[in-house]
Design a protein that fits this description.
Elements: H1 2-19, E1 34-38, E2 41-45, E3 62-66, E4 82-83, E5 97-101, E6 107-111, E7 123-127, E8 132-134, E9 139-140, E10 150-151, E11 155-158, E12 161-165, E13 168-169, E14 179-183, E15 188-191, E16 205-208, E17 213-217, E18 220-221, E19 223-224, E20 229-234, E21 239-244, E22 246-247, E23 257-260, E24 266-270, E25 281-285, E26 290-292, E27 296-297, E28 308-312, E29 315-319, E30 331-335, E31 342-345, H2 357-390, H3 395-404
Parallel strand pairs: 9-15, 22-26, 27-31
Antiparallel strand pairs: 1-2, 2-3, 3-4, 5-6, 6-7, 7-8, 10-13, 11-12, 12-14, 14-15, 16-17, 17-20, 18-19, 20-21, 23-24, 24-25, 25-26, 28-29, 29-30, 30-31
Pfam families: Kelch_KLHDC2_KLHL20_DRC7
Keywords: Kelch repeat, Membrane, Repeat, Signal, Transmembrane, Transmembrane helix
Transmembrane segments: 360-379
Length: 405
């Protein structure tokens, strides 16, 4: 009877496990992280969760969200992630730069950042196919012994090269305006032109344009820099140009996001340090470099800074960051498919959320396997019990068995 009860108890627990949804990783508040979109997965790495000068253990966090399933709706309030922190070899850090690169554009390249670990490498790579980190051996093609680490900068990828302009130099602690270029295919370094380069700055905004030019704007060098000028770096010709902007020019800012619109003809900026909600969202028309405030509907969120923003499908997906009152742990969705009106929404499809479906599938699969194992064990136990009862025994043993039964 004891064995029978134990088997039924195990079976009951397996059924309970199968019916309960497995909880996926729920990230805590953070800012100054990286967010890299590779093969429909958004990878989040590092950052900090305190307003003091320390780097907490959150800087070791590494997780992702798969946005590839078109039939799944994603809700910003229930978005769940899959944790990869157990395979992470990168020390806790903040304010690094990350892009996708490599021969097949499926490798995450992480450069620089601030860390309390003196042994942190200058560059790390994460293979998204094998889920493994490594430290690449990179050749220096500029004749210098070693490139210095920088932080508070933006990495831009174009034709397999990662462009790393400006930021804060680790040794001097000053803002710089040099251009480091990492060939992510041949794993080699070089430097870009300094002719007509913008003034030194950190925490600026940047994005790649369709014509292989990188647009840089804003940032800080002791004081915030105005956006009445933007700067264009030509990755093909290694040259700089300056454009004067007009229209409704945004306030000076740093720690904001810059993304190319879906039509490739406009640039969208959001947030920044000291920026309020009514001053957070602007668009720069690239045909005449004129700023304007777009028409927006939906529930307008509080502005934030030192977040990250990625264009995923028709949406600007804004992850975490710091608002005026707190550090955020959520995600914002801005529908940018209609240039006449952007829409803040909690759902990428506008439908009821099914964001946890992946976790449910994983939980159901594991629970189903365990349930089958439990049923098999129960079947074997009952079969053996029947065999024992039907076996021929000597008279004294048979009487003892009947007595026990």
């Amino acid at each position: 009877m004891l064995k029978n009860s134990l088997v039924y108890l195990i079976l009951f627990n397996l059924i309970q496990f199968w019916s309960v949804e497995i909880d996926c990783f729920q990230p805590s508040q953070r800012y100054l992280h990286t967010a890299t979109f590779i093969d429909n997965k958004l990878y989040i790495l590092g950052g900090r969760d305190k307003l003091d000068t320390s780097i907490e253990t959150i800087g070791k966090d590494f997780f992702y969200r798969d946005f590839s399933t078109s039939s799944v709706n994603f809700n910003s309030q229930e978005l769940s992630w899959l944790d990869l922190s157990n395979v992470n070899i990168v020390p806790p850090h903040k304010a690094a730069a990350a892009v996708k690169g490599g021969v097949n554009n499926d490798i995450l390249f992480l450069y620089g950042g601030n860390s309390t670990d003196n042994d942190m490498a200058l560059v790390y790579t994460f293979d998204t196919k094998s889920n493994s980190w490594s430290i690449p051996n990179i050749t220096n093609m500029s004749g210098e012994e070693e490139f210095s680490r920088k932080a508070f900068l933006t990495g831009i990828i174009d034709n397999g090269s990662m462009y790393l302009w400006g930021g804060v130099e680790e040794i001097s602690k000053y803002s710089v305006n040099d251009m480091l270029i990492l060939d992510t295919i041949n794993l080699s370094w070089r430097k870009g032109s300094l002719v007509n380069t913008p003034s030194p700055r950190r925490n600026y905004g940047a994005t790649l344009l369709p014509n292989h030019q990188i647009i840089y704007m804003g940032g800080s060098n002791y004081t915030n820099i105005t956006l009445n000028e933007v700067y264009l770096y030509d990755t093909i010709n290694d040259s700089w140009d300056t454009k004067t902007t007009s229209g409704i020019i945004p306030s000076s800012r740093e720690g904001f996001s810059v993304n190319l619109g879906l039509d490739g003809q406009r640039v969208i900026i959001f947030g920044g340090i000291g920026v309020n909600s009514t001053d957070a969202l602007y668009v720069l028309n690239l045909s005449d470099f004129k700023w304007y405030i777009p028409k927006v509907s939906g529930t307008i969120p509080e502005s934030r800074n030192n977040h990250k923003a990625n264009v995923i499908g028709n949406y600007l997906v804004i992850t975490f960051g710091q608002s005026t009152k707190t550090i955020e742990s959520d995600v914002l969705f801005l529908d940018i498919s209609n240039n006449d009106e952007y829409i803040w929404t909690e759902n990428l499809s506008g439908s009821p959320s099914k964001s946890k479906v992946i976790c449910v599938i994983i939980g159901s699969t594991i629970g189903g396997v365990l349930l089958i194992i439990g049923m098999f064990l129960l079947y074997k136990w009952n079969k053996n019990r029947r065999l024992r009862r039907n076996a021929v025994h000597p008279p004294d043993v048979e009487q003892e068995i009947k007595h026990k039964i």
